[in-house]
Amino acid sequence: MKTYKKLSITLLLMSITFFACSTDDDENDNTIEPPISCENATNFIFEEKDGLVVAEFESINNINDWNNENSVAGFSGTSYLVWKGDQFLNAPGNGLLTYNINITTTGTYRFIWRSRITNGTSGSEHNDSWLRFPDASAFFGQRNESIVYPGDTGQTPNPNGSSKDGWFKIYKSGPADQWKWQASTSDNDAHDIFVTFDTPGTYMMEVSARSSFHALDRFVLFTENVSLSDATSETAELSEINCN
Ligand SMILES: [Ca+2]
């Protein structure tokens, strides 16, 4: 009788241990820590230097409902952020990511992100997210002489396709199975993205979910004094991050 009781307790303990281990395994994907942690997430600031900002999307503290993953190879930094929730094709502001940037070199910067499609083989599905600079002096898309402004800002013309409440839909084109530096707006009429900061200070960059399975790796902002290849180089130095 005693031996039977002992065996039962042993089996119970083994079950608990097994269950605890299984739970740990399931949580591995979403536990990648950012490089530094600020007590107040809104005080997390990227420092522009010599007309260049280089930042990993995964480096902020509050990633809302995005997933922080590292299973699709070829990313830079420690991981990438991918949206796996509902699609918000005409409703920006969901799954909000905020990047505060301290600008000392005033002027117009080009913006590009490095992103990837992580579901299926189509190059035109799961290939976009929303972007907004709500307190910048200007935020626009440009292709040669053509300029477009985000919808609902009172400025025209607006891009082809979705744009709302000052947000641009930012997409990549080309094959689905590769990370790519590209940030375009206006459907079938790709305009590059620019943002102007007229005075030194801290500005907000906002990203929100649009297509599911769009993965964001790294972004850069650079003035005309910095080349595209230098800004997007693998060896470009990451911007300093401060907690103010
Ligand atoms: Ca990254």
UniProtKB/TrEMBL annotation:
Alphabetically ordered keywords of this record: Signal
Leader sequence segment: 1-22
Superkingdom in the source lineage: Bacteria
Protein's recorded name: PKD domain-containing protein
Classification lineage: Bacteria, Pseudomonadati, Bacteroidota, Flavobacteriia, Flavobacteriales
